[in-house]
Amino acid sequence: MSKALSIELKISQELRDAVDELSAASGKTAELIAEEALRHYVDWLDWRHEQQLDLDAAILAADRGEFASDDEVKAFFARHGA
């Protein structure tokens, strides 16, 4: 069973109006809309973190001189077009 977390936010009137409009249009509560938005944001941050780790690893490999050979590059483009 998950523990509930209650959060109080101060948001702009513009954002509040947008949430109210979404709530009215979708039939979802403002709380559910906020929870979904937070879930999407957290998922995006996780994805971004993974991308950064991959980028850091690629930079380290490049710094070590680990590059694809000419033949590997040609084979890649032959398989994927270009």
SSE arrangement:
Blueprint: H1 13-26, H2 30-63, H3 70-80
Essential attributes:
72% helix, single chain, mainly alpha, 82 residues, 0% strand
Helix content: over 70%
Overall 3D shape: elongated
> What integer value in Å does the Rg equal?
23 Å
Overall tally of domains: 1
Distance between the termini: 52 Å
* SSE succession: HHH
Overall pLDDT level: 95
Fraction in beta strands: under 5%
Task: Please summarize what this structure is.
This protein has helices spanning 13-26, 30-63, 70-80.
Report on the architecture of this protein.
By secondary structure, the chain is mainly alpha-helical. The chain has one domain (14-80). The chain has helices at residues 13-26, 30-63, 70-80. It is elongated, with a radius of gyration of 23 Å. The protein starts with 12 loop residues before the first helix and ends with a helix. The model has no long low-confidence stretch (mean pLDDT 95).
